[in-house]
Amino acid sequence: GYYLTTWASFRVVGAPSDNKGWKTRFLYISHPQGWDFGLECLSPTSQGWVISIMDNKAEGLRKEIADLRVRSGLEAVAAAEQRASEAQALVDHLRVEEVEVRARRNALEDQTLKMTGTLEKLKVELPVEAIVEYKKSASFEMGLVRIGQVSYEYGYWVALARFKAQDPDLETEEDPFAILPEDKTITMVTEQPFDDSPLPPKGVVSL
Q: Which residues does UniProt call coiled coil (predicted)?
């Protein structure tokens, strides 16, 4: 705490006549939470001095409070700027992903249009029997499979972009169609013919 020592004169009731009614004493004034003076017991000179000290201390406290408010404000501004920067980074990332999804969608749509155009051309150029035979071919069946895969992948990327926009903190598998290292050792033909033949009766082993 703070301690103040000052000289002050005060009248003592019932004092002997030889001291003319005045006594000079040391006053020790302190307070655990701050300054507190009984100014009525101090001389006018001491009162002015104490008031000056109190004014200086109050001014210092006001400056400390102002500094704390400024520092607190700066910290709040910095935190808000950090949050805004993170949000902007997320928005930019989602925009890039949106552009990529649109590019994939356009490529898939172009592929679908080409396959549809080829089919329409065949309808005009080939007789009906040839069209029937072509629909039974493995290439046509694979084309249908690819069209289904195109639609599935496009729906997946659109759903993934919406999911990330709603829940950016959750982790997702970025490319489920990528070839994993453990799958590279498995041999698989590029085109697998579609087999819709009926299953053999029970008890009959197919060779």
A: 51-111
Nearest to 31, CA basis, from 52, 69, 1: 1
Integer Cα distance of 41 and 11 in angstroms:
9
Whether residue 74 is contained in a domain is answered as: no
For residue 98, give its domain range. 90-169
Domains in the chain, number: 2
- Is 52 a member of any domain? no
Q: How far apart are CA 140 and CA 145, in angstroms?
A: 9
pTM of the model: 0.28
Domain annotation covers residue 24: yes
Q: What is the pLDDT of residues 158-199, one digit of tens each?
A: 777 777 777 777 776 666 556 666 666 766 666 666 666 666
